[in-house]
Amino acid sequence: MSVQPEDRTTIDMFARRGRGRPRSNPYDRALQCRQNKRTQRMRDKANDMRRLEVRIEGRVVDGLDDACELLNMSRAEIMELALKQWLHI
Prior knowledge:
This is LexA regulated protein. The chain is an all-alpha fold.
């Protein structure tokens, strides 16, 4: 019988007991990251979210960061709000 990373029944069968904190998740960190990223992509797709990458001058980003602190919002939230207002959406 081989051990599969996704198989919860055999994950601990051949594992050595070690010292330290007990594992709260039977999967290794790389698999957890892949699963979390997949879940995030599915959640974003369900919410009709799309990824957008832009390049902006440093002084504009500094002003954006100041606005983030003042309004207690993230960069993405402020940019989305500004674009919605500009596009009248």
